User: What shape does this take?
Amino acid sequence: MMVQTSTKPAPRRSLPEFLNVPWRVRDVLFFIVAWFGLQLLIGVTLAVLGRSLPPVKQFLVQVQAGDVGASFALDLAGVVIGFLLVAAFLRHYGVSWQAVGWRRIKLWRALKYLLGIMLVFILLANLALLLVKLVVPGFDANQPQTNEFTQATQSHRSLALVALVLLPPIFEETIFRGFIFPALAKRMGLIGGAILSSAIFGIAHGQPNLFVYTAILGMLLCFMYVRLRSIVPGILLHMLNNYLAFLALSGK
Assistant: This one.
């Protein structure tokens, strides 16, 4: 008598309860399309209004010229749109901002993780950039990130500090770790969700060397979120990383 063996795959390890969010991958896709679409709509609307309204036309001229204040206004609009979309999803599913990781932390424990992971990140990022440089001909590991904010760290220091150090970590940790990562983890498991969300995080930064750098940072931030159940320590780590880059830019 033959004994049949089960061919079913082993069940995926269950997620921590706080990562079992009610939204799904399709909600993440909708968020991405809506976020970019609404920003595009704002751009088109401004272009149309600029034909007949001199103040709007002047604003667009300032944006095209790389004016720091005008560019910051557009970036801030994108951040507000992103938060409003997340708020809409939270309201739709009847959950609070705690669902995207805005939870209280134990400060001392968070600081220990922050310092330890920062050291690990520096080591892994430099090692990864070195390996990619050896494997990919022409890869520039030291290619600087240049935009109107990185070029204004001396002339508009306070605004650049907000635009580069304070605002991005709050927004990006809420979106990538708090909203996108749990939805992907539900579908792909913790490791798969961390890898894919971190890859998207890296792609969003738009440069090959920044992709390597930020993808590694993203995976460590996912680990930090899983361990500490809050995105707040990740925000602090993200701010520290950006502040060190800000100081380097300011010293040039």
Summary: The longest helix spans residues 157-203.
